[in-house]
What does this fold into?
Amino acid sequence: MASSTAVVDQRSSDDPPRQSPQILVVIPAHNEERDLEHCIETILSQTRVPDRIAVVLDNCTDGTEDVARRTACGLHLDPRLPELEIYTTEDNTGKKAGALNQVLLGRLLPELDDEDMVLVLDADGWLLPEFLETGAAKLARHRNAGAVCGSYYGPPDRSGLIHVLQRNEYARFARITNRQKQRAYVLSGVSSMYRVATLRAVYEGRISGKLPGVPGHLWNVTAATEDIEMTHALKSLGFRPMAPTHCRIHTDTMPTWEKLKHQRIRWQRGMLDSLGSYGVRKMSWNYYRKLTTLYVSSLIPLLWLACVAGSYALYGGVHWLTWWLLVVPFMVVERVVTVRREGRRSMLLAASLLPEVAYEMWRSYLYWIALVHWLRRTERVWHPT
It folds into this structure.
């Protein structure tokens, strides 16, 4: 692991002048032979092409390394394009967070200036063309942001109920973010862009004890979800991360209900674990409020069913007010409008109403499972997704 001095020190005054700020894209890749090449293609198609691209090979057992080296050879033939740097982790047991710690702290951060920017991009993420240009401009203009992340959308070419449900969910979440002054609720693990000065502040915060985690680490390897923990770290230091409208990215959706279940339980457990490690701070009140609202609202359908059952048990029936059915068309219109940019399949699914209602109830059930695991302090089991 690199020392504190190596991370904080700036480049030597003897180094040749260069364009500043530079943009470095770091792609942590664990068994990503299917998606890596397309991911890099979307990076090269940006309106602002990055200065450096680094692929971090982490415990790969498939052909990811072959894809990376073949792509690197192709980029080397065109001097107008950045070279592809390839790094391999050593004895990493910290998953994505551990891989980023090894390569960023040990190799990359000491070579960068405070004003440079680092985009951490999952290999199954595909940037839309304006991402880097928009993100760099936002970070330069809003220095208190510290970091920006992408609004993620499901891939438009995936068909099937499970993919369309996730795509609609992502589209609505992005819409809410855009309507809330582009404030990032969570820095997306799929694509988040940091000022180097921000990363150095987090690193020093772990050393000083101001932030939880292992001193000498940047990303917290003990967190279930490194992106949620990093969001809380930045906000604890006074930064206000953003999710700009034009920082958009397509990310893969879970292909099976089993994988989707594991993903959502891990996400919710990660939020609960992170809030638990940070305790009660000014930045955490909004998260506690939203989590309380989420869990209370998830009980409303059960309370409604209990009331109906109780009415039948006590009075032999229920007096229905049929005019309440007038609410249903408004619900349908709202759900259709919020996914209209996702295309005809998404709009038709939203109009049918019941599948999405069932999907939201199922997700609520998973949130309760995550809460039970958190309260019981059960050991987290990592499931590949």
